[in-house]
Structure formats: structure tokens, C-alpha cells
Amino acid sequence: MSLSAAIEVDHLTKIYKGSGTPAVDDISFTIPNSSIFGLLGPNGAGKTTTISVLCGLLSASTGKVTIAGLSAETQSSEIKKIIGVVPQDIALYPTLTAFENLRYIGNMYGLKGDSLKENINKHLDHFGLSQHAKKQVGSFSGGMKRRVNLIAGILHQPEILFLDEPTVGVDVQSRNVITEHLQVLNKGGMTIIYTSHLMEEAENLCTEIAIIDNGKIIAKGMPKVLIKENGSANLEQMFLKLTGKRLRD
Amino acid sequence: MLRLTSTIRKELLILFRDRGGLAILFLMPMAMITIMALIQDAPFRDYQELKIPLLLSNKDTSTLGRTIEEGLKTSKIFEITKTDKTDHELKQSVKGGDYEIGIIIPENATALMNEKVGHFVTEKLSAAGLGDSANSLVAAPSEDLDLIIFFAPDTKKSFKVSILSTLKQFTSKIETQTLLDYFTKELNQDGLEQPKTENKIDDLVNFKEVNTVESPEETLLLNSVQHNVPAWTIFGMFFIVISMAGSLIKERDDGSYTRVLTMPGSYATVMLGKITAYLFICMIQCVLMLMVGIYLLPLLGLPSLVIGNSVIAIAVVAFSCGLAATGYGILVGTLFTTHQQSSTFGAVSIVILAALGGIWVPVYVMPDSIRMLSEISPLYWSLSAFHKIFIGGGKLLDVLPYAGKLILFFLATIGIAWVFNRSKK
Ligand SMILES: Nc1ncnc2c1ncn2[C@@H]1O[C@H](COP(=O)(O)OP(=O)(O)O)[C@@H](O)[C@H]1O
Ligand SMILES: [Mg+2]
Question: What is this model's ipTM?
Fold first, then answer.
């Protein structure tokens, strides 16, 4: 195992119970330390399934996953301490305020007291939410919820951050502040794994990408290199060439 | 510890912000207690204080008439109306349903009885060769001594039998007394020693009434308040199942359950936090409902709730009842996938378990077949335990078996939920 790899995925297959076809079908890739890795694909490609196995929510049917040198199968409790997860769903309690939500999540990571309070306020401020700290999250717009959802995943400064479609359904301003912040965190050494179906965003943000379709990885590498090899003008064009124009469920 | 306390705090914050949920948890059982206690007040009193209306025409002013009348009065089963009506009029009153029973004691009842006894005694004595002479033999009475009794036309046979045997009790006592007096008198004429004490006969054999069923609800102390307050308190506590299952399903749907799974530490801690928070709500419910029974119901003209004298026993029962309710909530929230399903199933199942458990009507008025089913209802265990304390004056030891059952129920529900959850990953 190389020390420079944050994550190694080796012939991973995931078949859901009661389902005949694999959601993720024999995929392998390596994510270097301190990279921003984009796992890109159309709806139903297997992005969420892959991320769920990586952060220990699902167990692999076959294959091996190693996170920071730890086995996802047997050392998930150690892994949980060093990763942060920003789920695809807005997993916040709507009747709690932004501050209360974040305090609870911080507590769950063992953060507490004044330092947690400062930490939360600093983040709320950075994401333009200070004046909404005491409002219930249920009253927030989609973009505001996404921002709180992101803060929830990074309060404890994880080594590795997983984000599942963190910018889906948000306006350009919110998307911008989110992606900019991800770059700041990455400069600080955080490894970021991110899924999206927004090609332009991924092209600007990612240092590495893998394109997944029907549970299989069909391309992986640095975005610029891949686009060039493929002879496309941009990532979106390449993506359509590779995955076809068939509509997905 | 931090994970536990912050989970409890989070759950309580969410619960207290849910006005609708709070209304269901607190106002509904409060309203149920008050309404049901008021509605069932009269029926419960009837059940205890039911008196049979009896029309009595006592034409005999001597011993027999008086004794029977006294006996009827002291038995407290009858509501006696005395009348001078003719026999025919009396019969018509009972036939018309104004009275359940009519009794006529004829004018010469005492005299006739004395004659009968006299004849019987002298005959026996002379047959034994103890009689004085043939001319002291008392002649057999010319007519029979019949007390007349009428029953209302719709009276059940079993009821008639029991009333007749009650009446027989009064008459046989006086028969015996008279018989004994007569014997003594006759024998004394033969120059035997005069007994120094008066020959007052007491019942040689007494019937002592003992409750056949040990369950405390059969004791007379059970009134509408004693029944309904603990009953609807338990019902309200079990209704926490709806909000608890709802909360679990919501967290599963919106991904917060998943988020918690990505965090360090065991999920059991989070579950424990949730259970603790809901258990705390159950305890508040319980205290509030008992207060309603003690302080509010008397203001509405109902008797005040009597809670016995073991606060520890009450706390233990409330705690284990709350545990059973939260365990059931977790089970329902785990087995069902939508809020709709879980709240429907939760509510219906609790209403059924409540009905079986004697929450709506006490178990002892149910048919035997249903009564057996009551045994499977945790609401019945809880109610029995409360009755043991409130009515039977039970202490901690008396309620431990019930608390044990409730805790086992909790462990079983949690266990099933855990196995079900594991099989899904
Ligand atoms: N819990 C599940 N049970 C069965 N099949 C599932 C489950 N979750 C996802 N799938 C299926 O697995 C495939 C991949 O889904 P997912 O990983 O969510 O895709 P993506 O996140 O790329 O949109 C889809 O065909 C989806 O229907
Ligand atoms: Mg997805």
C-alpha cells in the first residue's frame, strides 16, 4: 500500500439484497492524498453506492476497500474518526436551528464547549449564515440547507471528506461558495471525494476523476488529460460521448 | 457520554417543538381520563351499589315478621319499601316491574310458627318418653305457614334461587331459636335445672365471603377514577409509540440516520439517548395524569385518586411501562417504512391492546375467552400493577412480577428490531 494513497478500491462489487444486477460492478481505483477526486456519472450509475461502501455504510459484496491504510471491512470505527461525510440528502433536523443542528453533530464527533461554539459560528459566518443561526433549518432555502449540510461534514476537520452531490439543487451563488471552500480545505491538505453529474463544476474543481456508468468505471485520470485523449472540447462533451445519449431512470 | 447527553438533548428539543405531537402525548390522555372518568362514574357506582327494589307487606307484628324485616334491612342488598297494599295490589306492583321482588308476611306468621314448633317438640319428646302426658301434646296447626314471594316477570332463575336462599337464612335462624326455646321450656317443666344463661343461638356455622379472584380490580374500592386514571395514563404513555416510530422513520427517510451511522461511536448509544428522552416524556405524562386524578377530577365532582402508599412502586411501574412503550415504538418504527403505515398500525394495535388490557372496560366484566387474551397485553400488566398499588395497597415486591414482564417485553422488542436492522445492511 502506498502512503500517498488516501483510498484504494480493489475490484469492488456491490449487489443489493434481492437485486440480480450489481449496482457497482468490479471497480478499482486509487485516490491520492490531498486530491480532489470526482466520481462522475448519470443517475443510477452507482455513485452513492460506491461512496456508501467507502465510508462504511454498506459492506462490499466482493473486493477490498482501504481508507488511509485501514480496512473498510474490519476497521470501520477507526475510519469513522478521520472521515467526514456530506450526504446527498439534507440530513438535518428541520425543527432545530442551524446552530442546534451543528452543535449536535459536533458533539457526536466529540467536540464541545466554547471551542465548538466558536467553530460553528466561524463556519456559519463564512457561509453567510450568521444571521440565520437561530432559525429553524426547516425554514431555510435549498441553498442555505446545502451550506449547513456541508458545515456539518467539516466541523471536525476530517482528513478525508466525502461529498455526495453537494451542489445539487442550489443556486449559482451557493454553489460557488461551496466549491471555493472545498478548494480552500484541499489546500489545507484534506482529501476530497465528490460525486456529481455537473460536468462543468467537476472540470474546474477536480484534480482526478472517474466516470462511472451502469456500475462500471469507463474512464479515469486527470480531467485535462482525459479530455485531450478523447478529442473533446470539454468534460461534458466527453461524458456524452462515453455514456451515450440514452435517458436514465 | 457526550454522545448520549447530546442525543437526549436533541430528541427533547425536537419533541418540545412539535406542538401537535405534544398535544397527542399530553392533552389526549388528560382529556380521555376526564371524559371517561365522568362517563363511567355512574355505571361504576351502579356496579358497586346496585340495590334490589323490594316491596314488603309485613302484617305480622311479632318475632318472625320483625326478624325477617331486620334481616332484609341489614343485608343491604335490598332497597325496601314497606306497604299496606292488599296482596293483589302488591302482586300487580311487582308484575308491573316497579319492584324486583314482593314479599308478604301473613298476620299470624309468628303464632303459626310457634304452633308448628310446639307440635313438633311435644311430639318428639313424648315419642322419646320424655313428654309429660298425652294431653299436653300440642295439636298440629290448622294451616300452613307460607311467606308469599313474588318476582318480577323478567327475573332470572339463578337470581330467584339466590334470593330465596338469602331469605331462607333469615327464617331458619329464627326457626332454630324458637325450637331451642321450646325444648328448654318443655324440659324444664320436667324439673330439670334452669339454665343460667339465656339460650341465645348464634350462627353455628357462618359463611365468610372471600374474594375468589385475587386480581385487585374485583375489590369494591374500584371506582371510575381508580380505574380510568391509571388506565388512560398507560394508554397515553403507549401512544408515545406513534411519535417515536414517526421520528425513527423520518430520520431514516431524510438521511440523518445514515449520517449518524457515518459518525464515530456505536449506534446503540444513539438509540439509548432516544429511549431515554422518550422515557422521560413518559414519566412526565405519568406524573401529570396522576395529578389530574388527584387534583382536577375532584373539582368535577368525582372522587379523588387514591394512589396507595408506595411511591417507589409507582415509579418502578411507570418506568417499566415507559420502557415497554418505547421499545414497542422502536419496533414499530423499525418494521414499517412509512409514517402512514407506522402511525396507523401503532394506533390500531395500541387500541386493541388497550381493549384487551381492560383500559376501556375493566377486564373482570369481559367474557372469559377475552380475559385470557388480556394476559398478552403489556397495557394489562401495567394496569394490574397500578391497581395493585392504588387499590390493593401493594408495595414494591407486589409489582415486581409485572415490572419484570414489562422489561422483558422491552428487551424482546429491542431485540427483534436489532435483528431486523442487521438483516437489512
Ligand atoms: N437500497 C437499494 N436497494 C436496491 N437497489 C438499490 C438501492 N440503492 C440503490 N439501488 C440501485 O443501485 C443502482 C445505483 O444507485 P446509486 O448508487 O444510488 O446511483 P447514483 O448515486 O449514481 O445515482 C441503481 O440502479 C439503484 O436503483
Ligand atoms: Mg446518488
Answer: 0.89
